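Re-running guanosine-diphosphatase to confirm reproducibility after the cluster update. Everything else is unchanged from the original entry.
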Amino acid sequence: MIDAGSTGSRIHIYKFNNCFSSPSFEYEEFQMTQPGLSSYAADPRGAARSLDVLLNRAVRIVPKELQHCTPVAVKATAGLRLLPGSQSADILREVEKRLRERYPFQLPDKDDEGVYAWIMANYLLDTIKASTPADTPTYAMLDLGGASTQIVFEPTFSSSSSSSSKQKTLEEGEHKYELNFGGRTHTLYQHSYLGYGLMRARRHVHVLVDFMASLRVQSEREKEEEVVGNPCLARGTKRVVEIGGESGEGVTRNVTMSGDEIGSFEACQRVVQLVLAKDAICETKPCSFNGVYQPSLLDSFPHGKVLLLSYPTSMTASSPSSPPHPPEFFTLNAQDKLGIRKAIQMKYI
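Result of re-run:
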């Protein structure tokens, strides 16, 4: 599995024992390379070649007699999808071409974005195995990336609900995913909120704050120090941010933002509400934000087991330029199930 994120590409090489009703995890190998595919916007072939160091690691690890039946998937995040024009498609085309021409692995046809993380977490937490009791609730996954956020969960609906306002079933659409795993069928809701990852959402906040500042009268301090007040910065702090070039084109400029006078949670929350477009038209109800249909977690996911993931391995790197060396509790050790649970539940709410 190659995770082509906005800040770098990572390969996860998993070994499973498939001799039983449910796959049994044995071990994982991990390696990271930087920069990410989106950094090669003008060089699609260079983007494809950047994955060689990861794929060559897989060739060395996977037994030669099993390579032809070992699936490989390249999952590019929103950092790549946000490239203008045909740049993202050109890069993916070159990546696929290089995989088919130079490497012996099997390329799956179906796009299962977001679902893999849900399977990984629920498998490790023993909620979807063949031996798991049928009434065991699964965990929801919220994966905060750099340019997008993915949510995957298994909603449940009560046909006997007396309230006419409550949803009775999951609406049809691209968000609906039927998964057969461990001898059972799971109907999942999945969606990728493009533009709402950690880096991209923060950039949206900065752009909105800068625009709002242009509509109001600046304070004397803002004029004197040539800064823009940003309520989402802590008081006493400043930050230089880049404004412009939202679609990869156009002129960018640096703006110094300060939280000295107006930094506060309440004021920042109002800005975030605007960024989330909570008032957008909701054609299919209920909606989460930006007019996107999503079943209510309170109604359809009442047990509330939600896992939040965001750069759990990358954040342990000693420096941005070197591959991360995760501590022991981040390593998927098949002999230490407690350690696996702790690694995941660090982000549990």
